[in-house]
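REVIEWER CHECKLIST
Item 1: Sequence provided? yes
Item 2: Single chain? yes
Item 3: Sequence as submitted:
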Amino acid sequence: MPITCRIANEVLPVSQNLRTFVVRYIYFVFDMSKTVPHLSDEEIALRADRARELFHQGFNCSQSVFAACADLYGIDDESLALRLAASFGGGIGRMRQTCGAACGMFLLAGLETGSSTPGDHDGKAANYAFVQDLAARFKQQQGSLICAELLGIAPKPQSPTPEPRTEAYYHKRPCADIVAEAVRLYLNAINEKQLHSSEEKRNFAG
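Item 4: Structure as written out by the authors:
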């Protein structure tokens, strides 16, 4: 009878591929993908407020979400975080497609669960599953993932030139609230993910 071990509800045949078993065992036990500590409600609220503040300073929706949380993953240079997320504002390059706030979450999801190993199908699947979960939560919360629908405008080609940030601009758009809620949504999802991981570890140890 082959030697097997159960990891995260999956039975792995040890004798079939010892290297794969050992690597996945170490990865599971030490949870090497988890880089963000559990965040309190107060810290989540502070980061949501920071996203709102960045948007009111003139940064786009994607920049506001990503930069409010990027330091959790070691990106302490806020200017770098702002540049990394810059192209996704306005529904990706002001094309009014996928909301930039959602794109900011997806960029963070890459830092949380993304794989840098070629051919890592399990890693890709885990990342895509997390992104799909975030997208579903965002759509349920906001009603849509599409920028044009969130703004109530026709989905037609847009000029690349952004509108001036005036009082009227902020008054007519829901974007400041959306970026704050996107940060809350993302960080609460991370907290839930960590709780689930801890429960799996206890089950494994038991």
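Item 5: Key structural point noted by reviewer: The chain has nine helices and two strands.
Item 6: Recommendation: ____
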